[in-house]
Design goal:
- The protein has about 250 residues and is of the alpha+beta class.
- Helices cover about 30% and strands about 25% of the residues.
- The chain has a single domain, classed as archaeoglobus fulgidus dsm 4304 fold (2-Layer Sandwich).
- The chain has an 8-stranded mixed sheet with strand order 3-2-1-4-5-8-7-6, sandwiched between helices.
- A hairpin with a 6-residue loop joins strand 1 and strand 2.
- It comes from Salmo salar (Atlantic salmon).
Length: about 250
């Protein structure tokens, strides 16, 4: 992929995104999603990539599976990978998805009983330039329900980090409260969630695949002990620790 000139690569990726976008399911598909307390949900996954400082090619791809609702570790997979696709804004998924998908496939092959019923992704879903972020990409290719949970606001489709946005954040009084991220066209692409009483900085939740926004929001909040939901927090911590142990002279980013 990376041997194509960037302009051609962008066109190719835009076409692939548009095609895969048609497969995204933006509603609840599982029985547990329709239960107020998520009865039947037992395994929640989290994925993340951590890079060696100063190196944007070699990374640790991390998958964790936690029990639900206790959020105790059931499975973890840390794998060093070499990213082959270039970084182009709006196309992060083409760099990262293959390695996260491989982690899920390894688990399905070796211990299928531990395969997560939903995956929380450190990144965006429908809240994206073309409504097809990393969580959508991974969801469609894996067939699993996925939720995008971003730590920083992606300024797209008229959503901006302006005074109005800051005012909306300030209006969130307690954990679980949220406000919509509405595009210029009027479509709600995601929601800003105050994930805990102690955290005033929100996370940004959007649909990845096979789940509704309201359910994604409730589940994300229920997985939060701190600001970042536990599956993603554990994936991030464990991938960074892996780099610290195996590359002690190069601090992770």
């Amino acid at each position: 992929m990376s041997i194509l000139p960037q302009e051609e690569l962008v066109k190719k990726w835009e076409s692939e995104q548009a095609s895969l976008r048609q497969q995204v399911v933006e509603e609840d598909t599982e029985d547990w999603q329709r239960c107020h307390d998520f009865t039947g949900l037992e395994r929640v996954g989290g994925v993340d990539l951590s890079f060696i400082k100063g190196d944007d090619v070699n990374a640790c791809a991390q998958l964790v599976v936690l029990s639900y609702p206790d959020l105790e570790l059931l499975y973890e997979d840390s794998q060093m990978v070499t990213l082959t696709a270039p970084y182009i804004s709006g196309f992060l998924a083409f760099r990262e998805t293959p390695y996260l998908l491989e982690a899920l496939q390894r688990l399905e092959t070796t211990q299928p009983s531990l395969l997560p019923q939903v995956v929380l992704v450190d990144g965006n879903g429908l809240f994206h330039y073309r409504e097809f972020g990393l969580a959508c990409h991974l969801g469609v290719l894996s067939g699993l329900p996925c939720i995008g949970v971003a730590k920083n606001l992606l300024q797209v489709q008229g959503v901006e980090k302006n005074e109005e946005h800051q005012s909306q954040i300030a209006s969130l009084q307690k954990g679980g409260e949220s406000f919509p991220l509405t595009s210029d066209s009027g479509k709600v692409l995601g929601k800003a969630l105050r994930s805990s009483d102690s955290s005033t900085k929100p996370v940004y939740v959007s649909v990845g695949h096979k789940i509704s926004l309201d359910t994604a929001l409730r589940l994300t909040h229920s997985c939060c002990r701190y600001r970042v939901p536990e599956p993603i927090r554990q994936a991030d911590m464990r991938s960074r620790e892996y780099l610290r142990v195996h590359f002690p002279t190069a601090a992770d980013t």
